[in-house]
Amino acid sequence: MLETSQADEQTFAGSVRLVHAVGMHARPAVKLTKLAKKFQAQVSVRVADAPEWINAKSVAKIMAMRAAHGSTIEIKASGSDAEAAVAALVDLIATDFPDGNS
Amino acid sequence: MRNGIAGSSYRGRTASIGFAHGPFVRVDQLASTDRVAGSLVDEALALRSAVDTASRQIADLAAIAGGEAAQILEFQVALLEDEDFIAAIFASIGEGARADAAWRSALDEQITDYSSAPDEYLRARSSDLADLRDRVIRALQGDQCATLGIPSGAVVCADDLPPSQFLEIDWSGGGGLALLRGSPTSHVAMLARARGVPMVVQLGTFPATGSTALLDGEGATLELDPSAEQIGLFEARREVHRKSRAAARAILRRPAASWRGERIKLFINIQHVGDLDHADAQFADGVGLMRTEFLLTDDGGLPDEETQFQAYDAVLRWAGQRPVTIRTFDAGGDKPVLGFTHDGEANPFLGVRGLRLCLAQPEIFAVQLRALARAAVRGNLKVMFPMVTSAEELEAGRKLFAHVVAELQANGIAAALPELGIMVEVPAAALAIANFKASFFSIGSNDLAQYVLACDRSNGALANLLDPLHPAVIELIKRTAEHGRLTGTSVSLCGDMAGDPRCTSTLLECGLRELSVNASTLAPIKQAVDRLSGGGTHG
Fold this sequence. Notes:
Helix content of chain A is 30%, strand content 22%. Chain A contains 3 helices and 4 strands; from the N terminus they run E-H-E-E-H-E-H.
């Protein structure tokens, strides 16, 4: 069966302030990509108003974003679980990348 | 001993304190042996298999490493699992590139990117990536690990050492790490401190031969094929260190120090942002003195505003609510800086140095003040001027600072004028202390003693005369502390005597309640205060 119903699915978006003291460094970047990969949806992020959206599942690109402490991160996702993906990523960043959870 | 027959001794920089006495093992750089390239498909398969091997090795290491080490390794694994990143490498193999060349060039691109980052913590990641690059290349070449077979307890010497190789070495039987290059802020240095492995970096070059070695992480020395006498001295230092650390470190974890019912605040002095990685730094009440001269000398040129801001901001973030006192450039005297300090002064210690120099070069000073004004809104920042003689100098500095703040704010940049204080190191300032409208005072006892006693502190022949406990020096410290008490102004002391337990009781008797010391002496000083207040037996 061909899955060609993408056009019917909604795109969800959210934004959140990066409170992590040192910005998007290795540890937060790894957590973010790991979480994004749990969703089937295509998830993209960018620093507010940056020209390009970045694949949230690529740690190299997330690190290259160089998001600084205090910057606003925009998230958008499309796919079957897009809404949950945006909510999960917003929560991860807002709660400052807590240890121990999934 | 100086003729090189036995006991050659080398000095570097401390990255992790501790002592190691063991066989000397040289780890060589990865040999760049060529492998024979196969077809496009073979190359892609070879890289896939090397990446899998590397992933497995790293996962094994992470399982035994735990904590911070595991986090470093997680980043490497995440990169290997980054499909966008890996796909680009396979694409270039598809276009005819050899597996090792494609991999190396993709990683080198990342490494270059990281090593040019303005942020010191990001720059440090470049060595993790070099580690990952070499691990996959080794897997491609089918090599064994370079660190395999290192005996337990060895003093390991390398040009630089990646974190994963550090983790492959068995440190359970002691041993230490001596690097010719390396940095105290690198990941491997953080790992060494976390593991308690002594480590000395930036030893420069030395002959790579030797059978046994003594590594003193505290004195930052490496001694090769030591004589019996050298070994005796080394073991004595190790024993003193062991005893005092055990007793003092227990004290650090107890509540704040107090003496005669008054709280004694203990701050740390730092030379570099990386000094905050010291295991004991967390127990400090704040940063009592952050020197900024390292910004002037690290790569020769004068640092731009952003580089400075990043350094100040990193320290403020570390400190959280705790105060951070940053001292403006204290160049000149025995610290010449090309393009900044004045050449050819007959008496540089009595010359254009400290605040004098900054006021003489307002365009350079303004860059630092801008960076500080921006940092002031990010935490509990205090700024102090060094080498102040008259109240007019403090006011001139304040005026310049206020002007810079107004300019930044007019441009919509968040900035504030922090609390301003002065170093008390010129005797005239100590004697006329009431003239200064400073928010705080910090006694620089090294220079104060030098000027009061008329002894050049770089002249070894005067070492005995240069006594910081001379009654004249003590009198000035006492007066300054008394002035602080009467006016409700904080007075601290940040010179070497603050970190010398033999001086602690005198300083407390003088009326000082704040001392600022190197992180490594925080424990012995807290212990000294505790002993003086009759503590140690209760609570």
